[in-house]
Input
Amino acid sequence: MRSALPALAQHQLGVIAADAWFEVRRVRVTGVERMNELKVYEKALAQRDQPMPFVDLDQVRKELLALSWVKDARVSRQLPDTLVIDVVERVPHAVLKKPDRLVLIDDAGVELEPISAANAKGMLLVQGPGAAKQIAALGKLIDSAPALRPQIESAEWIGNRRWNLTFKTGQIIALPQGEDESAGALVSFARLDGQNRLIGGKVARFDMRVPDRVIMRVPGRAAEQLQAKETN
Output
């Protein structure tokens, strides 16, 4: 009998609250800038017309956290009749290229929503099996050479072990595997570029997978050398 008393008291409190107009009549949402706000209201309006004491705030928060864009949320009551929802949105960080579509992701690799190629222009493009799980490490890698950051257009995760970066010029740099090794190679390349202006030059690919060496590939160079050899 004792166990039934709290439930009965809660029910009576709900009835009293309803009679006093303490029902959910309004929903106020803050913090939404990029995501579809209607999705938040859909979760909240399921509580509409319920007595305030009956609203399960933890459950509403749990349902909001299931939305791809919601990083965190706080749900509270504002008597007499308003449910207040404060949303912390995930911030778009890059575009993940999948076999059939482009997807917006945050800095943790969480998929937010599909995006068109037109709207993806200007954003870092990431591709390769497992690339989304490496997005935080990629950010740290690029931050190791800040002078190059504005020049990097895309990154491809190769063989689940290392990165190829493509500059806006179309030139590619192949980095070695290993967090320290790849960062060291990128910093070395940034230093060389500062001295010799490699980005924008004739070299199409810079291979830095071998320690202390940069192998450069110039389109057509092999054919030119072969022709010169035959002429001689």
Q: What stands out?
A: Helices lie at 4-19, 37-45, 57-65, 117-120, 135-143, 179-196, 221-231. Residues 1-5, 16-21, 222-232 have pLDDT under 50 and may be disordered.
